[in-house]
Design goal:
about 110 residues, alpha+beta, two-stranded antiparallel sheet, two-stranded antiparallel ribbon, 6 strands, about 25% helix
């Protein structure tokens, strides 16, 4: 489901600009975590972990960058625009279980 606080299109000033181009998982992402920064404090003891769950729309950037990096390694001659175009034209509005990804604002399938 796409969170209600995620950006939505079209652009309010220029409606012909449909943004965002792509949506990626954005809430409660498991990601690597630096040992320098504690992830929790229990009984005045800082706990450090190698992985942590992070929330917020900006964490989806890592997912998209990972996909773009893999594509760049396979096709080193492709431009950033070609990589973006490929991600956009191969995207789907279905989740990993082949069910529609819902828009939490309207409780309707995304388009």
């Amino acid at each position: 489901m796409i969170s209600e606080f995620s950006s939505r299109g079209p652009n309010t000033i220029v409606p012909e600009i449909l943004k965002p181009d792509l949506l990626a998982p954005e809430e409660t992402i498991m990601a690597s975590w630096t040992g320098v920064m504690p992830s929790a404090m229990i009984d005045n003891d800082f706990i450090s972990v190698e992985y942590n769950f992070i929330s917020g729309t900006s964490v989806s950037c890592a997912v998209v960058v990972g996909i773009a990096t893999l594509m760049r390694n396979i096709h080193p001659d492709w431009s950033p625009a070609a990589i973006r175009s490929t991600m956009m034209t191969t995207a789907t509005s279905l989740d990993h279980n082949n069910r529609p990804i819902y828009n939490s604002n309207f409780q309707q399938p995304g388009t």
